[in-house]
Amino acid sequence: MNMNKKHSQIQHSDNIDKSYREKNSWGITTSVDLRSCNPKFIRDANHIKTFTIDLCKLLNVIRMGDCQIVHYGEKKEIQGYSMVQLIDTSLISGHFAEVLNNAYLDIFSCKYHDPLEVYNFALKFFEADPTTSTLHYHFRKK
Description:
By secondary structure, the chain is an alpha+beta fold. The protein has helices at residues 13-22, 39-42, 45-59, 115-125; strands spanning 5-6, 27-34, 68-72, 80-87, 90-97, 102-109, 134-140. The protein starts with a strand and ends with a strand.
């Protein structure tokens, strides 16, 4: 299943979990595109690190090493922090586009997680616009 829906169109979490189990999925990829984030938050490496640690707690996964956060981008349109966190069930990554005040997050795990829970958590943490932010998820096959 591949979802590209705005907040008001997203399925209920129970339906996502049921579909995941019915399809006998091996893992799940969740992508969250946060738009119009609080500019202060996406420009703060410590805030991004705290988000990542708290997200790992929410997902009940073990962090494998430190969260890597690097600020880069020679061109203004791509400048911002990028983050990678290895976890015991795979990885979490993100890019924080300063010129747009957007954040692009990806979580892959062979352990089920609730995409809607991740979306809502990230939306609040970065104070993003719920009317333009989007959630995508895809079940991985065995």
